[in-house]
Write the structure tokens for this entry.
Amino acid sequence: MSSDFYISSILPYSAIIIKICRAYTNNQEDFEDYYQEVCLQIWKSNDNFREQSHWSTWVYRISLNVCLTLLKKKKNNRQLFASDYLPPELTEDSKAFADESLNQLYDAIRQLSEIDRGIILLYLEEKSYKEMADIIGISFFILLNIIVVVNKKLLTD
């Protein structure tokens, strides 16, 4: 991956990637592995981006798909990662694991189903409902129903 691609196409969206990876991992080591794999897959799939959506939507989709795939593979105890390089910016950005209130939020999010996690992350990012439905690949009305249910789950836990 060229540093130009990383700087122009990944780094501006690193907050999105960090939030998604954080929601699907329980520790710093897994988080860093997921982040690396998401970046690698964004780079590999760059030629497949057809500009039918915003680049940020593409990054969300890849991030969610990679995290869900890695989570399933981890459950099956397989070797997961093809990349060994972790950019210095990530180490600095991911120090949030030391923030206890943020850890509580992510602990609550991790209690949700895999798809619900993705939806609540998009909700917390203040994405429009239409964009959220497009990213997840469900209808607008199903999305609204899921958001209501997920919010109730989070508030009761």
Q: What stands out?
A: The longest helix spans residues 55-75. Residues 3-156 form one domain.
